[in-house]
Amino acid sequence: EAGVVQSPRYKIIEKKQPVAFWCNPISGHNTLYWYLQNLGQGPELLIRYENEEAVDDSQLPKDRFSAERLKGVDSTLKIQPAELGDSAVYLCASSSGQGHGNTIYFGEGSWLTVV
Amino acid sequence: AQTVTQSQPEMSVQEAETVTLSCTYDTSENNYYLFWYKQPPSRQMILVIRQEAYKQQNATENRFSVNFQKAAKSFSLKISDSQLGDTAMYFCAFMIKGGSEKLVFGKGTKLTVNP
Lengths: 115, 115
Known about the structure:
Helix content of chain A is about 0%, strand content about 50%. By secondary structure, chain A is an all-beta fold. In chain A, strands 2, 4, 5, 6, 9, 10 and 11 form a seven-stranded mixed sheet that branches.
């Protein structure tokens, strides 16, 4: 069974440019997460989806970040415009949810460098 | 708010020996889950072991075991018979049971297994 798939793996952009990351969760997983991992830190939640609904986006900087999960499957995270401080790894994860502390599976991440 | 503290930024161990990674957490909740994730250089977070707070028995997965001390809010990971492939970042994480399904991570411990 395929795991969580993310693309692109690596992206280098100039500041003020837009960037988008795509995530395909494990089949059948209703819960999808986007985490931000800065260098030397643990991941921090940006947004969590239950099917199509964003149920926790309190940590998403909405002035420049946006996300969507159309049809409750794939998801896209966008940054516009990017700033130097956005250089980080963006991790997508999924789980079957249901409030039972089910295992959260992570993708390999999208590395962003803003120059 | 829940916090997770890993007080050892880096550790090293000789191959075949045993190492223990420390983790403490702070919460007012009584029902929760605790996890250890491994993150190799590829950056994919891989679940190593999980513990449910209501279970007194410490979880074990092959060479990996935990020492869960609920009163002390301590959750250490012991790796026995360390292997070169165990070299990675290790993150301790916390999730409230029946809550937001959100993982809260510590800052991680970089473990190096030396030949």
